[in-house]
């Protein structure tokens, strides 16, 4: 039996792109995403997408559709990335965070409440990095199931310089967790490795959805240490996408489906939440669907 795996990249507000693509898949297959995929992995904003699609309502059905998550980005993106000028320009260098964590925490609480990982409709894998113990940390619904979804999502979205880390005590171990994008902005390889453990005798098909490739070039000039922080963060997040894509294409061949494209009109900035840019991101998503029409058609035909 074939097992279908979903992987969703990080990218801040650009998470609206995979949400729109997954809404298209739900529309074509007439199935909720949680009924299509046996394991769903996400990094940062991708974690919000997969967790949202796997959250149960009181009747045990999916509480949110992919379209509901599109609305999350439209309605709350500007609130999550809301900050005063002083905080952005001065205080961010003092406390290492441009944005107050209370905003994103209130949105996560609104959407996920006190639900735990073990209560999800499909197997869920969410990436983060533990800067206290210097190691990757994976939230797995089949292993760390008693952890609240909102805490796991707060950890995976704690992008350095954007939000402060998330402190959690897990199995008597203190952890200080940041965005999983620092090592796995495309979590496909992590998803594949875990799928081989969960489904050792099954064929694996992995669908990996990006949030748009960055087109901004970094112009070399003599920069101070502080000025290099954000460009280096962008390089770190973007470079891992290409490496993982190369690896997975060679390991899985045509069983690895990558839906991604270059951003042409939208900003690549994770925190550009202007109404104009959100509209551009929606246009980018529709263009991505159009450009991957044959791949999406074939996949939807198979799983319908």
Automatic annotation (TrEMBL):
Which stretch carries the motif DGA/G?
Answer: 179-181
> Which Pfam family, just one, is annotated for this protein?
Patatin
Where does the PNPLA domain lie?
A: 6-192
Q: Where is this motif: GXGXXG?
A: 10-15
Motif GXSXG, residue range(s) on this chain: 42-46
Q: Which Gene3D superfamilies match?
A: Cytosolic phospholipase A2 catalytic domain
List residues traversing the bilayer. Answer: none
**Which PROSITE patterns does this one have?**
PNPLA
InterPro entries in the record: Acyl_Trfase/lysoPLipase, PNPLA_dom
Keyword check for NAD, yes or no.
no
> Mind telling me what this protein is named?
Patatin
């Amino acid at each position: 039996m074939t097992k279908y795996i979903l992987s969703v990249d990080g990218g801040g507000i650009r998470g609206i792109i995979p949400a729109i693509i997954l809404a298209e898949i739900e529309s074509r297959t007439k199935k909720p995403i949680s009924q299509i995929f046996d394991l769903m992995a996400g990094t940062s904003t991708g974690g919000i997408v997969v967790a949202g699609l796997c959250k149960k309502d009181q009747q045990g059905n999916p509480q949110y559709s992919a379209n509901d998550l599109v609305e999350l980005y439209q309605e709350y993106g500007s609130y999550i990335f809301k900050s005063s000028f002083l905080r952005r320009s001065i205080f961010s260098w003092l406390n290492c965070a441009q944005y107050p964590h209370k905003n994103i925490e209130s949105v996560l609480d609104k959407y996920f409440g006190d639900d735990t990982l073990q209560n999800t409709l499909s197997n869920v894998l969410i990436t983060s990095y533990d800067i206290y113990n210097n190691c990757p940390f994976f939230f797995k619904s089949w292993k760390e199931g008693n952890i609240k979804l909102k805490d796991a999502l707060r950890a995976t979205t704690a992008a350095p310089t954007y939000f402060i880390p998330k402190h959690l005590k897990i199995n008597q171990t203190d952890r200080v967790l940041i965005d999983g994008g620092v090592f796995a902005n495309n979590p496909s390889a992590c998803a594949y490795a875990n799928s081989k453990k969960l489904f050792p005798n099954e064929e694996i098909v992995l669908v990996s959805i990006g949030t748009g490739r960055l087109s901004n070039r970094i112009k070399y000039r003599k920069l101070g240490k502080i000025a290099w922080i954000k460009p280096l963060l962008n390089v770190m997040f973007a470079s891992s996408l290409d490496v993982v894509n190369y690896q997975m294409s060679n390991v899985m061949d045509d069983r690895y489906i990558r839906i991604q494209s270059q951003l042409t009109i939208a900003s690549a900035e994770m925190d550009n939440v202007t109404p104009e840019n959100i509209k551009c991101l929606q246009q980018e998503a529709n263009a991505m669907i159009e450009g991957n029409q044959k791949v999406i058609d074939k996949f939807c035909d198979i799983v319908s």
